[in-house]
Amino acid sequence: MNKDVDKLLLSKDEYLNAINFRINSDEESETGSLSPLKGHTLGVDISTGAGLTDSDFIIGYVEIRGGLILFTQQTGVDKIVRVLLDETSDGIVLQTPTILTTQDFSFSRANPISAVYRYESSTVEKIYWADGSNSVRYANIAISMAGLVASDFDILPGVEHTKINLEDISTGSLITGSIQYSYQFYQKNGAETNYAPPSALFHITQESDFLGESEKYIGSEKDTTAGKAFKLKVFDIDSRFDKIRIVSIYYDILNTIPIIKLT
Predict the structure, then answer these.
(1) Distance separating alpha carbons of residues 143 and 259, to the nearest angstrom
(2) How far apart are CA 133 and CA 111, in angstroms?
(3) How many degrees, rounded to 5, is the angle at CA 112 between CA 108 and CA 114?
(4) Of residues 39, 117, 40, the one with CA closest to residue 71
(5) Contact (Cβ atoms closer than 8 angstroms) between residue 17 and residue 23
(6) pLDDT tens digits for 151-161?
(7) Which of 2, 67, 78, 188 fits as disulfide partner to 14, beta carbons 3.0 to 4.6 Å?
(8) CA-CA distance, 224 to 45, in Å (whole number)?
(9) 37/65 Cα distance (integer angstroms)
């Protein structure tokens, strides 16, 4: 091996580089010897895990506390697999893998997965993954994934929103102006939807909203307490989510930037 000359100047009896070999020599010596590097020892054959086969191709992984999460691919049968590590006198060995979920995620060997892991608590350990083809997904590996479908792993799940409705007007402390409302569904420590289209624009004035003639309905001075509150209602709540977040979009005068707040 000759590493001191350009590859164009190597003779037919010399070579520039070798893989899996190490050069052994003293610092002052101009000669040395080659010795092979130690290879790897098989820790566990993942195909021996329950439900795994030789056809499950690993296309990504992420390190977690005490082990690894593997992403495996077959046609229409994609799996998320947890493999825990044990430290023994022989070194680090892998335990028998556990399949966390089997879905059709549209995994592909042509699109390797990149993933990150976030530990929040003993009941919240999240992995996020992307493959450059599908939308970013996530899973909480600290809880059971039984009964979930592929869309349940979307960070922004698809949902059909209905507009938020004004049910009643009662006594309150709203400030004069105009206001709209919107909402989103979400799960505690989980996914959340996009916000729904804003409601109609509701006027906030000290005038009664139940006048018989509209020409008597007038506005009020800016920054004045109207003495009103709005009761809202959302229909067709998506049962996949256990919480709802309401936001208000408030205009104190015409053609101004609104103030948006969680209510």
Answers:
(1) 38
(2) 7
(3) 130
(4) 117
(5) no
(6) 889 887 778 88
(7) 2
(8) 72
(9) 30
Quick: pLDDT tens for 120-167: 999 999 999 999 999 899 999 999 999 989 988 988 777 888 888 999
Please give the radius of gyration of the chain, using alpha carbons only, rounded to the nearest integer. Answer: 31
pLDDT tens digit sequence for 2-30: 777 777 777 877 877 777 666 666 555 55
Total Cβ atoms within 10 A of residue 207: 14
Q: Which strand ranges, in their side-by-side order, compose the sheet holding 114-121?
A: 114-121, 124-130, 137-140
Give CA 99 to chain center in angstroms: 20
- Distance CA(115)–CA(129), nearest Å, equals 4
Which pTM value belongs to this model?
A: 0.62
Residue whose structure tokens are 């509150």: 229
3-state secondary structure of 188: coil
Are 232 and 163 within 8 A, CB to CB?
no
Neighbours of 80 (CB within 10 A): 25
Handedness of CA 127, 132, 134, 135 (dihedral sign): positive
pLDDT surpassing 60 at residue 45 = no
Classify 236 in phi/psi space as left (phi over 0), alpha (psi -120 to 50) or beta. Answer: left
Amino acid at 97: P
Domain residue spans of the chain? 7-36, 46-153, 165-262
Question: Is residue 179 a contact partner of residue 260, using CB atoms and an 8 Å limit?
Answer: no
Q: What is the pLDDT of residue 85?
A: 82
102 half-sphere exposure, CB direction, 13 A CA radius? 10
Burial class (CB in 10 A: 0-12, 13-18, 19+), 248: buried
Neighbours of 261 (CB within 10 A): 10
* Separation between Cα atoms, residue 11 and residue 219, nearest integer Å: 94
